[in-house]
Amino acid sequence: METISFNEVREAFAKEVLEAKAIDDIEKLKVKYMGRKGVFRRLQDGFDFQLMSAKEKKRFGIEFNTLKKHFEETLIEVEAKLVGDNVTLVRKIDVSLPGKDSRIGAIHPVNLVQIELEAIFQGMGFSAMTGPEVVSEFNNFDALNIPNDHPARDMQDTYWLKNGMVLRTHTSSNQVPALKKFGAPLRVIFPGRCFRYENVDASHENTFYQLEGLMVDRDISVAHLIGVMKTLLSEVFHRDDVKIRLRPGYFPFVEPGFELDIQCLLCGGKGCLTCRTGWIELIPCGMVHPMVLKHGGVDPSKYTGFAFGLGLTRLAMMKFSIPEIRLFNCGDIRFNSQFIATV
Amino acid sequence: MKISLEWLSDFVDISGIDQETLAERLTMAMAEIEGVEYLNHFVDGILIGEIVKCVTISEAPIKNLVTVECGGKTFQSICTAPNARVGLKTVFAPAGSEISNGLVEEREIEGYKSEGVLCSSSELGWNDIHEIILECPDNIHNGSLLSNYVPKEDCLLDIDNKSLTHRPDLWGHYGIAREVAAILGRELRPIEKVDLCLFDDLPYYPISIDDPEDCPAYGCIELLAPRHSPAPLKIQRRLNAIGQRSISLLVDLTNYVMLEVGQPLHAFDADKLSSNIRVGLMDREQNFETLDGQTRKMLRGDLMIWSGDCPVAVAGVMGGFNSAVDTKTKKLLLEAANFRGALIRHTSIRLDLRSDASLRFEKNLPPFFVRESVGRFLYLLKAAGHFSKASSRFSFSGSASGETRQLTLPPKFLSQRAGTQLPDEKVTNILKRLGFQSFFLTSGELHVEVPPYRSVRDISIPEDIVEEVLRIYGYDNIPMRLPEISTEPTKENLSLSTEHKVRRFLSSAKRFIEVHTYAWFDSNWLETIGFIPPEGALELANPSTQQNKILRTTLIPNLLALIDINKLYQEDFRLFEIGKIFGEQWGDEKAEKAEASRLAGISFSSQKDRNLTEHFFEIKGALEGAVFICQNRNVNIIPIDNDNQPWQQAGCWGKIFINGREIGSLGIIEQPLLDKVVDRGQIIWFELYMDSVLPKRIYPEIEFTSISSFPLSWHDFSILWVADRSYGELLSALDDFEHTLVKRREFLTHYAGKGLPSGKISYTFRYWIGSNERTLGSEDIIEFRDSLMKFLSTKNLGLR
Ligand SMILES: [Zn+2]
After folding, report:
1. Which of A183, B204, B313, B672 has an alpha carbon within 20 to 30 A of A119's alpha carbon?
2. What residues flank ion ligand 1 with Cβ within 5 A?
3. What is the pLDDT averaged over residues B33-60?
């Protein structure tokens, strides 16, 4: 009978293992070495134990078992590598399985943006106030220098209640109540829900959120308005190269009134499909009209201020790339569940 | 509104600046230019000619063989326009010239030679009116080049009407030209007019105004009607380019003056009037035929123009049929007036007659325009070769047309508002460019004289001057500044921060998804689930649809409606909403507040192996947690055994209390409602009064209890309780037990079934006892057990 030595086996195996490229190859090696007619069997058969001393037998046993163990381990290792994961027989627990109860819910995207803005404004010394959604005609219009026959009342189509109240068309309805309550100086924001009579489609909603800001103090100027808006937008968009511009805009409760545009962050102002002109109209704002200060019991010869209205819904659309405004109030979990509660 | 740059160039030189740049500068200093449109007209080689022969060669469709005389040369052409006739001066494009449908070629049409095309305005590239050929005034020589009268190209600026709502002075080309001149720093040419003083010797045309508030100014002049004729080509082209149709000299000129000065004009047939004019409100309901032949119902309070006792026009909206100009008209009464904008808006919206004129009147036009526009009209009439003899002087009633407002600004006012130093001479220069005379007094005050075209409503306070100066100065030239840091701490908003706390907890710890639903109910859905809104619910006077007219009084129905739309995407989900509900009961004495804040949630599961009880207690746990983080204490929930709202079914729901105050309710939904909401699954709901869970402060006070260094021991007791009474009741009974050694009581489990007396349930509690001073001995434990037993027997409670 042909005999083979341990060394030969070891070397041949090392070579063949290196050549193994697939699980099949490993299986073949297993059969070849460990099988019933495999190399180990033959190795065992090749020795006549009756001719060996006890010492020799013991040595053979050690050598044989060490080699066999080496083979087995090597094969497992190579097999694991080939399988491409760490499935092993030795681990007590597969820590990679999913944890229990790890599902996180979601916060409405408008509220996510609201929470973030409230934090930014708090850092700038602004308190927050919400105010009612059903308001008097006076607070929604007259107090804001929008008299009964003013065309501006046409500009904002209003939901009227049978009792003569209105669903507020803007968070500006808080301006006079806030001035009355806190007086000047004042830094306050009013986040909240507003309503305008509109037919709902992809880009129109009758229910939306605004965040109005009001700052009243001595000597507040247009330069301050620009400064605060720029700082705010840098924080909101997490960029320090935010460029803004003011141009004339008309709102009866400010004078002068502005439209604030932000340079398109997608194209850097070159003009793209989103912005067309390089600029995006973002924040209507202006210096608080002296009539509004008077209605709020603040002396306009001593105090000046600025006000601005951020569209929270609109901002959420920009921040999260939401293409359709009507998604916000649909309650469809395929939409709402995307805004994981990470704040 | 569209502005033609070619027209604008009559008044200001805009050469050397490209159209896009001009649009951009107007956007930055005046109002947003929404678009720039380039027009190409066909003029090269095109001639004015007179039709000298017109022979019909086929009827239906009409086809004429026309001979055109163009300065000594005649051409033959086939023309299908119904207005082709002998004697008509029109526009002829001979073979070789180019028009909008391509190169004109000599052709044979049905055996006739056609040497060119008689042109409609569409063929010249002015607009898309192609049915009729152009009609030119008689005073143009045959054979003249079209290029002598109309430009080869033009450019239109499109301005959003809404952005000019507050600027009644900008509703015509001249107003825009004034802005362009100021913005570019170029000269504004005067608008040429006939001096109306020329007619001062003629008799006054009687005007009376009932209420000057409704009609601040009314001017008119009586004239011989001009001969019926087309308007000059230049005027026709301009009107066409900005989307108007050209009709006749008279109509075109009134339109032209409106689009130039901004003041609508109206012409009455003077012979159909009773030689006087009155402006006054309708005092009863009456039908009135407007000049378009339609009968309109006029209501009390509509502003009308009257002559004698007869209404002859709906003021600012449309003239009457009874006083309309026609081909037989000999004498005109030309009206330029000024009405209260709101009245005009109201009537024109009601009659659905929103015209270019009413659009302008709505803005409260400056009375200054009244005289301007009549002078301009007469000038243009004369320039068109139609000197009309006046038979009255220019008659005027109302506030002086040249009224100007004076304003005085305190020293440094402008620089302070800007937040940057504005040099005095720069300020006065900018104001001058805008037509404001101004000078600085030695006291530093700025005196400003507001021009008459901006003295009505528009410029009335010093802040208005700030806008005028800064927009021309350039907002970009104001360096930004940050306000002084305020050291005053911001005021905490308890309701907002509590809302956010709850919102974070439910979403991040309890996997709820936040949704928003509308502030109103859907009445169809309410009917499906059988809910009738309570008395005092608020109703919209003008809902989007009738089924959405009632404002929500609870958040639950709108949330339930979401189950059906979402069940396909997930077989189990939890939703919540924080929002307002509305109703009179929340109104305070000032009636400003008629709403309350609510938190509501629903949990849905259609999983087959879901255990309803387990499901319920998971949601209840979430709710308890939400209240606990606000109030730092536990809620009590009392089972309710009768029906209330459709989702509050006997034995399936309870009221939530904290400290004896009711703060909401929760429950499960059973049949028959369940089937109406969803075909298969379980629904758990809760609704909480947010205003009632507001803490006194955001960070609740927590007092540390010292940790005993002596060990505690525990003792379990299984107490028997009547099955038809609730666990909550058992708890409140046990709460009465007081003992100094008891540190804590813990609920372990409950059991109902074999081995218990009938009608009883066993609840197992663990009492932890101990002392801060010593290790308890067995006598303490015995004493504790005895007193507990004694207590239980006083409550008639036994152990299992
Ligand atoms: Zn862009």
Report:
1. A183
2. A 264, 266-267, 272, 275
3. 93
